[in-house]
Amino acid sequence: MVANYYRKSSPETKRKNREEYKNLYLTEIKWLKDNLTLLKDDKFMIDMYTILVTGSRKMTSKMIESVRKNMNSPQYDTVQMIERQEKI
Fold first, then answer.
1. What distance in Å separates the CA atoms of residue 17 and residue 19, rounded to the nearest whole number?
2. Considering Cα of 33, then 77, then 41, then 4, what sign does the dihedral take?
3. Vertex 72: Cα angle to 64 and 23 (nearest 5)
4. Cα–chain-centroid distance for residue 40?
5. Using CB atoms within 10 A of its CB, is residue 11 exposed (0-12), middle (13-18) or buried (19+)?
6. What's the CA gap between 41 and 46, in Å, rounded?
7. Buried b (16+ CB within 10 A) or exposed e, 19-44
8. Alpha-carbon span 9 to 39, nearest angstrom
9. What is d(CA 68, CA 5) in angstroms, rounded to the nearest whole number?
10. Half-sphere exposure of 35 (CA within 13 A, CB side)
C-alpha cells in the first residue's frame, strides 16, 4: 500500500510565491477579485484565486491559461451575457 504524501509549502516559499504572483499575474488577480460574485459557483476558479493570493502552491502554465481563457469568456462578462440572452 502506497500512501499519498503531500508536503505543505513552507512559509518562506508561500511568501516568495505571493510576491512572484503579485508581480506576474496582477491583471488576473484583479479580475478574479472583481468577479468573485460571478465565480461563486465555480470551485476551480475560486481555487485559482486562492492559490494566487496565498501562494500555497506553484501556478502552472495550464492553470494560468485557464484563468485567462475564463477572463475572456462571456459566462463571466455581464455585458456579453446580456447580449447573448437577447440573441436567444
1. 5
2. negative
3. 40
4. 12
5. exposed
6. 9
7. eebeeebeebbebbeebeeebeeeee
8. 26
9. 31
10. 24
pTM of the model: 0.78
Torsional class of 13: left (φ above 0), alpha (ψ -120 to 50), beta (otherwise): alpha
pLDDT in tens, 34-87: 988 888 888 999 999 999 999 999 999 999 999 999 888 878 777 777 777 788
User: Which residue carries 496565498 as its cell?
Assistant: 54
Instruction: Give the cell for residue 53.
Output: 493570493
pLDDT tens by residue, 7-26: 788 889 999 999 999 999 99
Residue length of the chain: 88
Residue type for 51, please? Answer: I
Between the alpha carbon of residue 62 and those of residues 1, 3, 38, 50, the distances in Å are 31, 27, 22, 16
